[in-house]
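ok trying this again, last paste got cut off
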Amino acid sequence: MSQHLNIILTLTSGLTAALILGFITQKIKLSPIVGYLLAGIIISPYSPGYIADIEVAQQFAEIGVVLLMFGVGLNFHLSDLIAVYKISFFGALVQSTATALATMTVTHLLGWSWSAGLVFGIAISVTSTVVLIKVLSDNRHLHTPIGHTAVGWLVMEDIQF
């Protein structure tokens, strides 16, 4: 199959699955982002059925991450971070460190090396800022004091790790 056809099929299958599952999850009163995540799982190489071109899908995923982080920048301002700095800096530091250490300990007990457990622990400790912003926005809590604190906390996690 030609590379152009792989790009078109991967893009169309991903967008179609995201559209359908995003619509379904919105109809059952969930955030559409749940549907988008399910669409990614469905067309991944780790699930049965249709498998998108892995190389092309990874490149699209990287573009998607860049665009999502750009969206975070549009929704969060430096003044908001400064307003919640005291609670978000120390809270994120303690929470991330505790989660990373706990995960590292559990994975070591399961036979992993300490360094592999640390990398996995850091990955687990950093929550998805983009998902939270979308959920807060969908529920109209993004521009509330709790929303600012939650997003500030996650932005500090992103900066720290």
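PB: full thing came through this time. The chain has two domains: 1-66, 76-161.
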